[in-house]
């Protein structure tokens, strides 16, 4: 079964707060690198149907993101809603303040992430991947390794989603996207250090190599080591 990240983020919103959830899904698509700067969002009619919201609600959500600087609307034959080339910078706030706001939710999110993503790496390595899936993983790995400091978090997120994509499980992919968004604001509050990025890229390479080699145990171990490093780094800035 082929699953794609845009299906995970553009899935139907839950009843109750359609406007807020529509904004959240669109932000998720942008911040996790599913829709990249310069790309056009799906057509309004299609996107409203996929999110299961009215076109009025979708337009209100797009207007809110336009005001916030994430997207712009263009008219004409090749018009539509496009992700801005320059995205707003993450809010300047301290990691400790965010951690206090998350409270016990931080350890909960880290535990959930570890379970989901180590399982995803193992499951991905257990499948026979198509040439397209293998190329997709390698491309996401290469783009992350070559990313600038400005783009690193977004492309890092996209690589992790790509690993979940090739498991063939839509539910696992959606859960991975959700937990990444829970942690993203905190990750954005932590400085990107060159040495950490180099180490992270090495670990990314080990994970993808194990998945492509069809070695579930190595893939799980490499992902576990990678996520433990992130958790240690987070707690190091919070303690």
Automatic annotation (TrEMBL):
List UniProt keywords, sorted A-Z: DNA-binding, Transcription, Transcription regulation
Every copy of the HTH gntR-type domain together lies at 16-86
Please list the GO terms describing molecular function.
DNA binding; DNA-binding transcription factor activity
The record's section on Gene3D superfamilies has: GntR ligand-binding domain-like, Winged helix-like DNA-binding domain superfamily/Winged helix DNA-binding domain
Question: What domain of life does the native source organism fall in?
Answer: Bacteria
Q: Which SMART domains match?
A: FCD, HTH_GNTR
- Put simply, this protein is called GntR family transcriptional regulator
The species is Kribbella jejuensis
């Amino acid at each position: 079964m082929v699953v794609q990240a845009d299906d995970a983020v553009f899935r139907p919103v839950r009843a109750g707060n359609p406007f807020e959830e529509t904004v959240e899904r669109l932000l998720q698509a942008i911040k996790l690198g599913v829709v990249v700067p310069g790309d056009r969002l799906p057509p309004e009619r299609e996107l409203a149907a996929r999110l299961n919201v009215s076109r009025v609600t979708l337009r209100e959500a797009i207007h809110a993101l336009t005001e916030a600087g994430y997207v712009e609307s263009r008219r004409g034959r090749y018009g539509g809603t496009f992700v801005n080339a320059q995205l707003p910078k993450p809010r300047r706030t301290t990691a400790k303040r965010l951690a206090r706001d998350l409270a016990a939710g931080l350890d909960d999110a880290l535990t959930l992430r570890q379970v989901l993503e180590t399982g995803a790496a193992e499951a991905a390595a257990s499948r026979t991947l198509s040439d397209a899936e293998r190329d997709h993983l390698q491309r996401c790995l290469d783009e992350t390794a070559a990313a600038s400091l400005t783009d690193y978090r977004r492309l890092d997120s996209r690589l992790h989603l790509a690993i979940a994509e090739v498991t063939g499980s839509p539910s696992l992919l959606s859960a991975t996207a959700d937990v990444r968004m829970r942690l993203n604001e905190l990750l954005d509050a932590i400085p990107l250090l060159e040495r950490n990025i180099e180490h992270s890229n090495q670990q990314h390479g080990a994970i993808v190599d194990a998945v492509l080699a069809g070695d579930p145990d190595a893939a799980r171990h490499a992902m576990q080591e990678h996520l433990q490093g992130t958790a240690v780094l987070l707690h190091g800035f919070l303690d």
